[in-house]
Amino acid sequence: MDIARQLHDYRERVERGLATLLPPAQLRPRRLHEAMRYSLQAGGKRLRPTLVLASAELWGSKHDALPAAVALECIHTYSLVHDDLPCMDNDDLRRGRPTAHRQFDEATALLAGDALLTFAFQLLARHYRNHSTLCTALLTEFAEAAGSEHLIGGQMEDLLAEKKSTVTAEELDYIHLHKTAAIITAAFVTGGLCGGASETDLAQLRLTGRRVGLAFQIIDDVLDATADTATLGKTAGKDARADKTTYVKLHGLDASRQHARTQSDAAIASLAQLPGETNFLRTLIEQMVSRTH
Amino acid sequence: MDIARQLHDYRERVERGLATLLPPAQLRPRRLHEAMRYSLQAGGKRLRPTLVLASAELWGSKHDALPAAVALECIHTYSLVHDDLPCMDNDDLRRGRPTAHRQFDEATALLAGDALLTFAFQLLARHYRNHSTLCTALLTEFAEAAGSEHLIGGQMEDLLAEKKSTVTAEELDYIHLHKTAAIITAAFVTGGLCGGASETDLAQLRLTGRRVGLAFQIIDDVLDATADTATLGKTAGKDARADKTTYVKLHGLDASRQHARTQSDAAIASLAQLPGETNFLRTLIEQMVSRTH
Fold first, then answer.
1. Chain A partners of B132 at a C-beta cutoff of 8 Å?
2. Which of B214, B178, B191, B196 is nearest to B67 (CA)?
3. pTM (2 decimals)?
């Protein structure tokens, strides 16, 4: 099967998983569940859940990884919904559609974000509780990756950095590693846990995820500086207008592209240490670095 | 030991648990961890964690219930921090001190709330992962109680009710049961899980918690209508000024007090079905209904 077809199939599985695993929109309180589904069904590349599924399949997926993949997408989406709020980035557009607080209202978006974060843990409980060792390992991975020392820590430092006149390369690395790489790393590790990976392989997945996450975020900065709003589906050039410190601002476009390439090459090298057929994941990582939106 | 002394001892344990189990305020990002600690260290009655500890001790506390008790207080506190935000209740005072968004800023309060919710799950993972069956049961209890069909659902309906010209008794019961009773119920059940309660006893704890939660919320409504701001440590009379539907508005003061008493009597009756020394819990429930702040 070719890569484009595989990618399509993974995304289809994720979309079906979202449609069936999320609380129905009619469930009381309806407005809350509608806002949760609205935020999650904005499409997008479904990169993180695809990484979970593809990573699990390196070991032949001992346990169904789909609920965990959907749970990770819930965490990613909650962080976007809260990040878009007026007190944070105050963004009107996300993937070409009104952000949750524009489509509904601020309070509903706040609660829908809270509910998506919580629902990720409900999914783990509902689908893995009969495999309590796996369930506990997934809980650990999710809670730490989403917590104040990773995802939320990265968002906080990002917010603080916006108010500073100078941001160092170390501070920017902290933000990227915590805000972006933490959840992408969790995606690889989650796949490994569902697949039944050894401790050694889990460590290799963690290394791969960290490198992919960094490459991904650097390319995000590059695209914000070079692509237009229609292509991105979100407001482009925002970083520069906000005088936000990005990889591009600190290191320039060429060095940023080069650094992303170095990270993705390193990710592919660590991926090669893993068992199973890694061809799909390797190509996905390569595409991620050469993407245009 | 007398009840006042026991209550004091439980609160001391909770305070020590909070001080030692929360991430240190110096941890990066410092502002985030300071805001988490600020929000949690506002004092308060520590009712929910006290219920966890006292409930666990009915069975002699097979597992240390303190991390779970602190985790539940984290969830309760996150819901207050988000509830106080400008887009929700827009409150300046909480337990006599500036609310988190007044003390820090809105974005920091938003993220500190997110981080407290997530930290509750980190605590479960960090302290119970070696007892994976218990850990999974606690995860289930916490995630469901905090989720869109319980705590957040109650907050959403509460928000929607404020915009309606009439709120029915059924709608108000939904709000109270979901917004308040869900977490108080989770406190009793969490204690039972840590103590090693049987399925039958867990069901009895759930029933007790629901009744205590309803009584507690009705008394909250009564106090908002009758007490002053200094006594409450939060803005009093807010419900009436906002023309908010409360038990008092729907049923009157006397009937509200009577209904709270009926619920607490029923809670005490279901408590009596449990093993162990229930004297402390019984007195605590009685005090809750006769409290003045």
1. 132-133, 135-136
2. B191
3. 0.96
